Amino acid sequence: MPRQFLAEYPEDPERYDEMFAADGEARPHYAALYDQLLGQTAPQLRELFKDVDRLIRDNGVTYNVYDDEEGSSRPWAMDPLPLIIPSDEWRTIEAGVIQRAKLFNAVLADLYGAQTLFAEGRLPPAPVLGHPGFQRPAHGITPAGGVHLHVLAVDLARSADGQWWVLNDRTQSPSGMGYALENRIITSRLFPDLFRELRVQRLAHYFATLRDSIAAFAPHEPDERVNTVLLTPGPFNETYFEHAYLARYLGFPLVEGQDLTVRDGCVWLKTLSGLRRVHAILRRMDDDYCDPLELRADSALGVPGLMDVVRAGRVLLANGIGASVIETGALAGFLPGLCRHLLGEDLKMPGVATWWCGEAPAMEEALAMTDRLVFKSAVPHPQGRRFEPVFGEDLDEDGRARLDARVRANPRDYYAQELVAISRAPMLDRGHGRKLLARPVGLRVFAVATPDGYMVMPGGLARSASEQDVRILSNQRGGGSKDVWICGETAGSPVSLLRRPVEAADLVRSGAGLSSRVVENLFWFGRYAERCDNLARYLRVALDRAADNNDSGVEWLTLAELGHAIGVLPEKCPGREAVRELVKATFDSHHPGGLASHILHLSRTGFQLRERLSSDNWRTLNALAQRVGQKPHDKVGIFEALALLDEYVSTFMTLAGFALDGMTRDHGWRFLSLGRRIERLQFQTEAIECAMRMGVKGNPDWLLEVSDSIVTYRSRYMSRPEWIAVLDLLIADDSNPRGIVFQTSGLRDYLERLNDSLGGMPDTGIEALHRRLLVLDPTLDFHPGSEALKEALATLRAASASLSDQIGLHFFSHSDDRSRVIA
Questions:
Q1: What residue numbers bound the domain in which 666 lies?
Q2: Is 522 in the same domain as 401?
Q3: I need a labelling partner for 212 at 20 to 30 A (CA). Which of 11, 355, 727, 821 fits?
């Protein structure tokens, strides 16, 4: 073995090594990967990290670590090297996970049904009925097909003897599937030849089964197309990226609680064209928050009345409410007996030896060997009183006494587990490149219920520790991840996620089925995109003028007045002070009216549209947000600021191009375009009004630059800007995309189409104002002193603001409208 490559890969007989056997040779299923690594130079291996970082950054893959300063923007951590498992070993894991899913489903059916396990003494009531995850409103509910548990995640770890053990079960709304898919996409690009050579089993069939199985279990008529949604708590959840990613991959609308409503015993999605029936909900929201009427009353995230619809069997909820009670570690010691009783067979996948302290003999036995165990909470604790795992081997005599007293005071709240020295897997040294590190690794495996039983994802999510001696694997504790490769016996065949053949009745063209919240975000995405473009163009022109130190001229005074009107400059700001303020507005994300803060607003709005933005669009937006905050504004010079503004303007033009060339002209596009036009109309009217205050002797050159019309003007007139020609170009020329009439014409068209399709739009006054602009006389009105023009521009700006409010009230307020119901 190369000495340099393994210089920091120490021997550890107490841990199983996933790559190397006891003799130091690579295990057969790792041999090809190891040989490929040996053939790479240090720069080539470091390039792997650059590729991973680039793909994660471009795709916006994030995982929020609470209390982390990066917050929701913290990039997903991934090691390039996969965890490889041979197919014969995988079959054992697969069988154990399938059995475990069947067992848990049977246990849930009894707990929320006859409760014979309590009556027969096979399961003590205390760890179940006393657990917050046991939801009494769910008692008596019999779900379709008898399936309480549609998705299961099992956390596994391998001990020193090579045996896989179950550490935890995730049954409420298991996370990680989307991250596993993203990891797979990245590693298959890093090692394409090796991926084919090892015949790695593909994941698409699992996700197709998940999608189709939920539709099969959902209540619907034989020929009815099932409408499945993915319910998320929203963008502040730590795994929101995964919610959006899965929704897009599976073809499910991503919805929040406010997007759904209960009417006439059914769940409905609020869309532009009315209410659309929801047949199935794949939830990523905790039990307590799902229905404020029957669960947590202070929840603003859920759907009032949802439990009634579930109880009536009119909607499928996956997983069922109350499934999280299985997650308590207190049940682990009872599972072998429950498996023999409910399934008639021994438990195939052993769990770590567990003692629930609610049973006096078990408590005494656990406390007698504290040094060899880890003590955990059997119930979730409120924030601030959370009980972190206590490792007995870390305690001195006083510590053991305190633990003993705490457990004896409330024994039902605690359980103890045997310590497992979990296996280690190779990781590349990010700094050095050509060095392998050994880090503890665990495996999260996923199973999905189908009409024919449970199916296991052929792979999963490997979670790795950041340090060598970590005993608990957790992404919230800063751990990383790996892709999981199951070496197939035969080459995996590509699987399409296309649904059944689309028929004429299924064709969709209008986009009227978009949820009101999505359309609202599209509208504001358009406004923020245009606002950022306007700000960047203004800042570029203003910085250039302010740098000339000509702060007494009328041109600068009116330009500074515009800066004050749009929130960039303080009132009456001289040129020298203005440079600092303009640079600050460009770079400082805490400047409320500045460009940097609005870029973040744009990014956040785009994040809530993650499942609707193209990959190219998202990469551009994500790269834009990454530029914000890279340098303190007081460390930047004017020339660097101007260079950045040039880049920003180009990026905003790219984003506009995606909207123009990459989006179908449906209602979603129209609302985005409405946002852009309203924002541009407000800015252009404000800019023209400020410029007119210069009077006839003022030079409107800066107005043409801010309006991105200087090139057009010069190509037409090839002379110094004249007011009549400038105002004609910026107001009456319907071929100028920056012109006022161009905006009003577009607004008229969009509003007319929306009214024809959706109806109910009140008179906005835009039509009358548009006609008023067309009858302006250039000879009489296109000069700075025209009162008619000033009054028309002021009225138009007020009307555009009113139009924005009316659109919000009519389409985004989610008002009670029973007349618009879509079957």
A1: 516-814
A2: no
A3: 821
